[in-house]
Structures are given as structure tokens and as C-alpha cells.
Amino acid sequence: MSYTIDTEKNNLIVHFYGELDHHISEKARLKIDMKYKESSLKNIILDLTQLSLMDSSGIGLIMGRYKNATENKGKLAIVSSNVYVDKLIRMSGLLKIIEVYKNIDDALETLEG
User: Fold this and answer.
1) Residue 42 burial class via C-beta count within 10 angstroms: exposed 0-12, middle 13-18, buried 19 and up
2) CA-CA 20 to 30 A from 100: which of 38, 45, 46, 93?
3) pLDDT per residue over 59-110, tens digit each?
4) What secondary structure, in 3-state letters, does 47-105 show?
């Protein structure tokens, strides 16, 4: 599993690739949090479109970044078009508090609008 971190306007965008499981979640959390705090950005977008697998540690990673964003008066958005990941997000109850978008442009438009 790998990931890249980009910024666009007031948004930290994290692109995940491959698997998001307990082997990588802690390292990713630390790096995302560090980048988010040092860049003074408002919102976080997690791009999960290229994930092949996500376990409960991925849900934990999402929840922690949601908490960070809301404490900063920002929002967290998820971008996903993966049926498996969408099902896991739905089953976890995250849809009650976090918006899911099909592409990054839609997420950016909503967060910036």
C-alpha cells in the first residue's frame, strides 16, 4: 500500500493505492496529521478510488482525520468508486457524518462552495 499527499487551496488530499490495513494505517496517520498541522489547511479529502482492500484500521484512520478536520472547523470528504470500500463505509455508519463523492472535482467543488 502506498499513498501520496497533495494540497489544493484549503484542502489536504490523500490518495491511497492498494491496501489500507493495520500494516500501514499508523504510519499513514502520523504523516497525514503532521502534514495537515504544518500546512494550516482546513479540509481533508481521502481518495480511496485506487484501494483494493481496507480493513477496520482504515475506518479508524478515517474517523481520526474526521475528528482533526472538525476540530479545525473544516470537513472531511471521501472519494470512492470501489464497491467493496463503499460497502465497508456504509456498514460502518460513516455515511451519517461524512460525505462520499465519486471524484475529487466534486469533493473540491462542495468543500470550496
Assistant:
1) middle
2) 38
3) 999 999 999 999 999 999 999 998 999 999 999 999 999 999 999 999 999 9
4) EEEEEEEECHHHHHHHHHHHHHHHHCCCCEEEECCCHHHHHHHHHHCHHHCCEEECCHH
Q: Which residues contact 68 (CB under 8 A, 6 or more apart)?
A: 33, 36, 44
CA distance 16 to 30: 15
Q: Where exactly are the structural domains of the chain?
A: 2-112
Which CATH code for domain 2-112? 3.30.750.24
Query: How would you classify the pairing of strands 99-101 and 76-79?
Result: parallel
The three three-digit cell numbers of residue 11, written as one number = 484542502
Tens digit of pLDDT for each residue in 18-38?
999 999 999 999 999 999 999
pTM of the model: 0.95
β 11-20/99-101 pair status: unpaired
